[in-house]
Design brief:
globular, 292 residues, mainly alpha, 0% strand, 13 helices
Length: 292
């Protein structure tokens, strides 16, 4: 059996994933604003299309060489997971209270260590399980979900979490042969083609303000994807996954400044638990990644 040696630098990976969480929170703020007047189909399409545009200067300068790959199947699988999670998340936003929909998004790290253990045979320790559950408890306190979590529509939210976790692990699986830029490029390319299909019946005219916000969403989302892909290439998902919970903390801070949404006591306690979970991920040493 050929050994596959993957990088194991949790502190470096943690920095990249924390920056990705910050970018994701900024994207969420813009999506919340633009979704008042623009439908989900257009938001998803432009979010992906701008990812392709983001790489055009690199293609013009260096040619297509850096993006040539022998793993198109793996890239399509990653796109299937990522785009599926995106659509499920948007569906959850449309049919569930926002807090519940956001909770499902940040539930992905609960599944990630188990999937990484099953799919990649990476280490799964009690410490990893503890820090994931600690962070998820913090998310529960911050999001304060309602009884709608038990609504049949919540299955879309569960699907978003599972598919997002699969996307994280698929990135890790490709990290030995595919750099972060290539992973994000093919995700944007394939997602653009697929998300263009619903526009046949859901296209709507856009004014300059709406178009500007959609462009910003696409660019920020691409940067977030690049940072996340780099993070999961540097460290196992089970070790650094809980840092993605930081996005809900960043979102809360932005909402506080922009809309005056002052967090309650439970939110502060939840943020503290999320912070504790991320510190465990960064500071305490974990087991070495296995080779397969």
């Amino acid at each position: 059996m050929v050994k596959v040696v993957r990088l194991d630098h949790p502190r470096k990976g943690a920095v990249f994933l924390a920056c990705s969480a910050l970018s994701f929170a900024l994207m969420g703020i813009l999506i919340r604003e633009v979704s008042v007047t623009v439908n989900n189909e257009n938001v998803v399409f432009f979010r992906n299309l701008l990812g392709v545009v983001f790489f055009l200067p690199m293609i013009l300068a260096k040619g297509f060489g850096p993006f040539r790959t022998q793993h198109l199947g793996s890239h399509f699988l990653r796109t299937f997971f990522g785009l599926g999670a995106m659509y499920c998340f948007f569906y959850a936003i449309a049919h569930l209270p926002l807090a519940d929909a956001m909770l499902f998004t940040y539930a992905a790290p609960v599944f990630t260590p188990l999937l990484a253990w099953w799919w990649l045979r990476e280490s799964l320790t009690l410490r990893m399980i503890f820090m994931v559950l600690l962070g998820f408890a913090g998310v529960l306190l911050v999001a304060k979900p309602t009884g709608a979590l038990f609504d049949p529509n919540a299955l879309a939210g569960v699907g978003a979490s599972l598919l997002a976790a699969c996307a994280f692990v698929s990135i890790r699986a490709m990290s030995n042969t595919e750099p972060a830029t290539r992973i994000v490029f093919y995700f944007a390319l394939f997602s653009s083609f697929l998300s263009a299909i619903p526009l046949l019946w859901a296209w709507q005219p856009l004014n300059r303000t709406q178009l500007g916000m959609l462009i910003a969403i696409g660019l920020i989302a691409t940067v977030s994807q690049l940072l996340m892909s780099r993070a999961y290439s540097l460290a196992p998902p089970g070790k650094i996954g809980p840092l993605s919970y930081l996005a809900i903390v960043f979102s809360g801070v932005f909402a506080w400044f922009i809309w005056g949404e002052i967090p309650g006591l439970s939110s502060w306690i939840g943020a503290g638990l999320i912070f504790a979970s991320t510190m465990i991920s960064i500071i305490l040493p974990g087991p070495k990644a296995k080779t397969t």
